[in-house]
Amino acid sequence: MLKRVFPHPLLSLTLLLVWLMLVNKVTPGNILLGGFLGIVVPILTSPYWPGRPRLKRPFMTVPYVLLVIWDIIVANIQVALIILFKPRSKIHSKWVVVPLDLTSPEAITVLAGTITMTPGTVSALLSSDGTSLLVHCLHTDDPDGVRDEIKTRYEARLKEIFG
Amino acid sequence: MFAEILVSAFLVIAGIFGLVGSFGLLKLNDTMQRLHAPTKATTLGVGGVLIASMLYFLLVKDNLSFHELLITLFLFLTAPVSALFIAQTHILMGLRRTDLPPTGGEHDWSIFDDPPEQDPQETDQPQT
Question: Which residue, A119, A155, B45, B50, could crosslink B18 as a Cys pair with Cβ 3.0–4.6 Å?
Fold first, then answer.
């Protein structure tokens, strides 16, 4: 019964929170309306997400998000310094191939998004069998180091979250 | 007074990063390099404006505003996707297969090679 009303409790909670943030006022009426949306939208859209992944450790996402936000700030400063002070000829851009241990499409999506937002790297392509990711690095002299950092810093943590 | 200084500081920081991001578009050499400028420098540019706006409403106008958090969320969801689209279009239109490193696996990059017949990821998801 509870499963039928809340097929996706996390989505219901997210919808309620996003609704409250959108109307920007926390009143009983808004909570009621947000709760209503949080129940109806997941039920109506449930046919579109069969076999969705379960997070093994949902609470591990909090330190992950904080780490990524910190890395984004650092990335901004690093890229700004490269743009401002490095002469064009001294910017060594390289392609880096990252072999993936993650298998679920959602986890790979999060990893690719994280790589794009963080220090000097943009994810560009996935191999057709989904086992390696092509990353473009703005400036590096050590492509292997970049690959290892992505694997230990982000992929290992995502692996723990998605299980 | 203190609040206003804080808000202005964030606005100035945001402006600097926005400017550097745009300057990067001019300075860098090719499309892949230029892609780094808007995906990085601009996040902090927009982020700074949003933090300034939130602080302004919180400290000066005395009401908490959540819209900025939502904008941040939507920005973080959409920026990597558009960057990925630009990168893939650029690779498809402007580069040859030999410009890219090999995948290190059996299969080639997705825009040059069809997915294998029995994709292990597809079998996880029951077709309805």
Answer: B45
Contact state of A127 with B44 under an 8 Å Cβ cutoff: no
Rounded distance between C-alpha atoms, residue B52 and residue B7, angstroms: 5
- Residue with tokens 């002469």, as numbered in its chain: A87
Confidence (pTM): 0.77
Which residue has 């996706």 as its token pair? A8
* CA-to-CA separations, A161 to A43, A59, A65, A144, B84, in angstroms, rounded: 25, 8, 12, 25, 24
What distance in Å separates the CA atoms of residue A79 and residue A77, rounded to the nearest whole number? 6
Helix (H) / strand (E) containing A134: strand A132-137
| Sign, Cα dihedral of B115, B117, B119, B123 | positive
A-contacting residues of B 30-89, CB under 8 Å? 30, 32-33, 35-37, 39-41, 43-44, 65-67, 69-70, 76-77, 79-81, 83-84, 87-88
Contact A80/B17, CB-based, under 8 Å? Answer: yes
Contact A42, A8 (CB under 8 A): yes
Per-residue pLDDT of A69-97, as tens digits, reads 888 888 788 888 888 888 877 788 888 88
pLDDT in tens, A108-142: 888 888 888 876 788 888 877 778 888 888 887 78
Which domains are present in chain A? 2-48 (no CATH), 58-162 (3.30.70)
